[in-house]
Specification:
By secondary structure, the protein is mostly helical. It has a domain at about 95-270: MetI-like fold. About 75% of the residues lie in helices and about 0% in strands. It is built from 14 helices and no strands. The protein has helices at about 1-30, 35-40, 45-55, 60-75, 85-120, 125-140, 145-160, 170-200, 205-210, 215-225, 230-245, 245-250, 260-265, 270-300. Helix 7 crosses helix 8 (about 170-200). It is elongated and about 85 Å long.
Length: about 300
């Protein structure tokens, strides 16, 4: 049974990555011809043709795609047009900064969402519950780039407590982590609250209260553990989304990560870097969801194969 689950997961991962490779290959070429940005406007046609031939852009789209797939299997994404280095090497060089930012944002979202969701369920209908609902609503309604700009205006420009850009220390990650983690707080809070409400109304919680089990033990050891499965699902999804969706936040805060690099590569029409960056983040997204599926059996023994 476990082998079947693994085989199905790997097959779905391969299909997803192949689909992502096709989409990013097509979309990256909609931005225009990179040769027009690499040469001066008065460059002769002979120089343009020579550069297009050197980059392989004079071939048909199908030939370029097949060559792209062949190189992809070998782990070769080509040479960056802008940075003049292997695209995969550049992506792997910038990836740790993105993982660091996503991990900090993930920790912030959990640190806020878990107590807020649990307390909203325990004190249903109280002012704590109302605050939780307001935060959830604002988190879903406010885009991350706007949150980032407000944080910069308040804490970096007005109060001058934290830096607005860079990655030289822990203080530099605070504002971008809050901006990136604010949106998942809303969804995680709602999931925790709904899961806790369902568990708190169950018979074994009532039985525990009737025999005098401490309320704190009932809530955090028994109720929260049983409400953890949907939280784990959304945790994996949102952590993967932070890795692949940090492009805007990294650009706003000038964070030297993969997201900002891909954005710069899009404007430079650097096909190899765009393709390598998006495919690497797609692989991380697929891997994260695959690990979430495998973790179900650890959290809930009832679904073990």
């Amino acid at each position: 049974m476990m082998k079947a689950v693994l085989a199905k997961g790997l097959l779905n991962a391969l299909v997803s990555i192949l689909g992502a490779s096709v989409i990013i290959f097509v979309i990256s070429r909609l931005s225009g011809d990179p040769v027009t940005l690499m040469l001066p406007m008065d460059a002769p046609q002979s120089a343009i043709d020579a550069l297009r031939h050197e980059l392989g852009l004079d071939r048909s789209t199908w030939e370029q795609f097949l060559l792209f797939l062949l190189r992809l299997v070998q782990g070769d994404f080509g040479q960056s047009y802008r940075w003049q280095m292997p695209a995969l090497e550049l992506v792997l060089e910038r990836l740790p900064a993105t993982i660091y930012l996503a991990s900090a944002a993930f920790a912030f979202s959990l640190a806020l969402a878990i107590p807020l969701g649990v307390l909203s369920a325990v004190y249903r209908g109280s002012w704590v519950d109302q605050i939780g609902r307001i935060i959830a609503m604002l988190g879903q309604a406010v885009p991350s780039f706007w949150v980032g700009l407000i944080l910069i205006l308040v804490f970096a420009v007005t109060l001058q407590w934290l830096p607005a850009f860079g990655a030289d220390g822990v203080q530099h990650v605070i504002l971008p982590a809050i901006a990136l983690g604010w949106y998942p707080v809303a969804a995680q809070t709602r999931v925790i609250r709904s899961g806790m409400l369902e568990v708190l109304d169950s018979d074994y919680i009532r039985m525990g209260r009737s025999v005098g089990t401490p309320e704190r033990l009932l809530i955090w050891k028994y109720a929260f553990r049983n409400a953890l499965l949907p939280l784990v699902t959304i945790m994996g999804v949102y952590f993967a989304s932070m890795l692949s969706g940090s492009f805007v936040v990294e650009t706003v805060f000038a964070w030297p990560g993969l997201g900002r690099t891909v954005v710069e590569a899009v404007f430079a029409r650097d096909y190899p870097v765009v393709q390598a960056g998006v495919l690497v983040t797609s692989m991380l997204f697929v891997l994260s969801n695959f690990l979430v599926d495998l973790s179900y059996s650890i959290i809930d023994p009832r679904i073990r194969p």
